UniProtKB/TrEMBL annotation:
Keywords: Cytoplasm, DNA damage, DNA repair, DNA-binding, Metal-binding, Methyltransferase, Phosphoprotein, Transferase, Zinc
Localisation per UniProt entry: Cytoplasm
Class of the enzyme per the UniProt entry, highest EC level: transferase
DNA repair is among the record's keywords: yes
Residue ranges annotated for the Methylguanine DNA methyltransferase ribonuclease-like domain, each copy included: 10-87
Active-site residues annotated for this sequence: C145 (nucleophile)
Reactions accelerated catalytically: a 4-O-methyl-thymidine in DNA + L-cysteinyl-[protein] = a thymidine in DNA + S-methyl-L-cysteinyl-[protein]; a 6-O-methyl-2'-deoxyguanosine in DNA + L-cysteinyl-[protein] = S-methyl-L-cysteinyl-[protein] + a 2'-deoxyguanosine in DNA
Protein name as catalogued: Methylated-DNA--protein-cysteine methyltransferase
Residue span, Methylated-DNA-[protein]-cysteine S-methyltransferase DNA binding domain: 94-174
InterPro entries linked: MethylDNA_cys_MeTrfase_AS (IPR001497), MethylDNA_cys_MeTrfase_DNA-bd (IPR014048), MethylDNA_cys_MeTrfase_DNAb (IPR036217), MethylG_MeTrfase_N (IPR008332), MGMT (IPR023546), MGMT_N_sf (IPR036631), WH-like_DNA-bd_sf (IPR036388)
Note: This enzyme catalyzes only one turnover and therefore is not strictly catalytic. According to one definition, an enzyme is a biocatalyst that acts repeatedly and over many reaction cycles.
Function per UniProt: Involved in the cellular defense against the biological effects of O6-methylguanine (O6-MeG) and O4-methylthymine (O4-MeT) in DNA. Repairs the methylated nucleobase in DNA by stoichiometrically transferring the methyl group to a cysteine residue in the enzyme. This is a suicide reaction: the enzyme is irreversibly inactivated.
Organism: Streptomyces silvisoli
């Protein structure tokens, strides 16, 4: 499925959790990719080209400029809520509903259980599906899937790796600062 005639801009931003590839369309930030070294960035750009039917352009202006400023603010502890416009076109259906609820209903410095998030979107039997939605989140950090934890108190999984999840939760004051 492609969405032709949509400009996609991308850039790689160095952050305390490693390089993040950021991509945006005219509608907003559309993708954040962890561990964006050369190969990962190339693969992510190829996936975006296939999805949108156009070759993404390396450019930090527009929504990327705002996203970069906000991420810098977030990692410095000065920003607690992202305001950059988001393009939700890389997720649909249940995943989109869950990610919207996560973005709007789980503020900085808090966590939510997979089951609680399933209940909030009216799908009480879907805790595992919530976990799958977190793993498919095209906008991690900005749409804070790191804030979703196991109902029994465990940290749960994380597509960026547990080290990054612990670092983000420590940044937000949910966990003590990791000893690594």
């Amino acid at each position: 499925m492609t969405e032709s005639n949509r400009t996609v801009s991308w850039s790689v931003q160095d952050t305390p959790i490693g390089p993040l590839l950021l991509a945006a369309t005219p509608d907003g930030l559309v993708n954040v990719v962890f561990r964006a070294g050369e190969r990962t960035a190339r693969d992510a750009v190829a996936r975006l080209a296939a999805r949108f039917g156009t070759e993404p352009v390396r450019d930090r202006s527009g929504h990327l400029d705002q996203a970069i400023r906000e991420l810098d603010g977030y990692f410095s502890g000065a920003l607690r809520e992202f305001a950059v416009a988001l393009d939700w076109s890389l997720c649909t259906g249940f995943n989109r509903r869950v990610l919207h609820e996560l973005a709007e209903g789980v503020p900085y410095g808090t966590v939510v259980g997979y089951q609680t998030l399933a209940d909030r979107v009216g799908e009480p039997g879907a805790a595992r599906a919530v976990g799958m939605a977190m793993g498919a989140n095209p906008l991690p950090v900005v749409v804070p899937c790191h804030r979703v934890v196991e109902s029994g108190g465990g940290i749960g999984g994380f597509g960026g790796g547990l080290e990054i999840k612990r670092t983000l939760l420590a940044l937000e004051g949910v966990l003590p600062e990791p000893l690594f």
